[in-house]
Design goal:
Helix content is 70%, strand content 1%. By secondary structure, it is mostly helical. The protein has one domain (2-308): ABC transporter involved in vitamin B12 uptake, BtuC (Orthogonal Bundle). A two-stranded antiparallel ribbon has the order 1-2. A hairpin with a 3-residue loop joins strand 1 and strand 2. The longest helix is centred in the first third of the chain and has 34 residues, at 2-35.
Length: 326
């Protein structure tokens, strides 16, 4: 019985890490953008566009790495459009982001139907080189023979795709960039007081554009993960609100790297737990309806944001277009 519970916890933690990967990538994409003063509501659209692009490229060129590159290019192109509208033309950031999200959510399935004629989705990826498969770290097979604590290494740490490990490396790298480099200082300065940064000789437009491009790159990796690592191709609305959930994690983490990571892991844990509760006959409660199980991670997100982020401290100039004084 003890081993059964232990195995259940290990599998739950392994699923949590997998589910958290796109949230971490998208949350840190939003971190760069919002730290520079630009609202990151467009994460959902960039992820969905990247998922579509990577699914198409992996199916046509039979290479997961080409799929990753195309996914990033699509996401960066969407980020470029968003940057042009909001940074250079001073458009409303919220309206522009929502418009792009809606446009991509309709355009991607339409193009998939026109190009592949397989029901609004890209062809199913069946060849190993079309997807990012799980990687077994050294000695993971030996550790698996000893459940205590071998399963932690063999199932939680080992046995994931390369994109997951990239996401884990991203956390300390981003923290270093934002707090230990001149570029990170400029991003934070532009997000807090663009007028003072401009007076100091920092180009607000250039820094914000660079931050949005980084956001596009990371969102592209996140969308690619959904399509050709966690999944086997693009399907309509496969992001399922993960871009918004990543933004919620960023707010819950108060725009700080390690707090955002903790929030992503927490949200992923609730999602993984909810999945394993489907169809389970619980004492007193009974079988929980599937609809409630699917809504549980988002309900918990709202409750956490309402109960624990009483005093969020966003960048002071977030959402405010900067118009240089003449």
């Amino acid at each position: 019985m003890m081993l059964t519970y232990y195995t259940f916890i290990i599998l739950l933690l392994a699923a949590t890490v997998r589910v958290a990967t796109p949230l971490i990538l998208a949350s840190f994409a939003g971190l760069y953008s919002e730290r520079s003063g630009v609202v990151a509501l467009g994460l959902e659209g960039m992820m969905l566009g990247a998922a579509f692009g990577s699914g198409c490229a992996a199916a046509l060129y039979h290479s997961a790495w080409i799929g990753l590159m195309v996914g990033i290019l699509v996401s960066v192109f969407i980020a470029f459009i968003f940057s042009y509208v909001c940074v250079f033309k001073h458009g409303n950031q919220v309206v522009a982001a929502i418009a792009l999200n809606i446009c991509i959510s309709g355009l991607a399935p339409t193009l998939a139907l026109a190009w592949f004629n397989e029901g609004n989705q890209t062809p199913v990826l069946t060849e190993p080189n079309q997807r990012f498969l799980d990687i077994s770290l050294p000695f993971s097979y030996l550790f698996k023979k000893h459940p205590f604590p071998g399963l932690i290494y063999s199932d939680v740490i080992s046995g994931h795709s390369v994109i997951l490990y990239m996401a884990m490396v991203l956390v300390p790298v981003s923290a270093f960039i934002l707090y230990k480099t001149r570029f990170g200082l400029r991003i934070r300065a532009v997000g807090e007081n663009p007028h003072a940064a401009d007076t100091a000789g920092i180009s607000v437009k250039r820094i914000r554009t660079q931050a949005i491009m980084i956001s596009g790159i990371l969102s592209g990796v996140a969308g690619t993960y959904l399509a050709i690592a966690a999944g086997s191709g693009f399907i309509p609305d496969m992001t399922a609100g993960k871009g918004y959930l990543a933004l919620a994690a960023l707010i819950f983490g108060n725009w700080k790297p390690y707090r955002a990571l903790s929030a992503c892991l927490l949200f992923a844990f609730t999602d993984s737990l909810a999945t394993r509760l489907q169809g389970v006959d619980l004492p007193v409660v009974g079988v929980i309806p599937v609809q409630f199980i699917m809504a549980l991670p988002y309900v918990i997100t709202v409750l956490l944001l309402a109960g624990f982020v009483a005093r969020p401290e966003p960048p002071k100039s977030i959402g405010i277009p900067y118009i240089k004084e003449s």
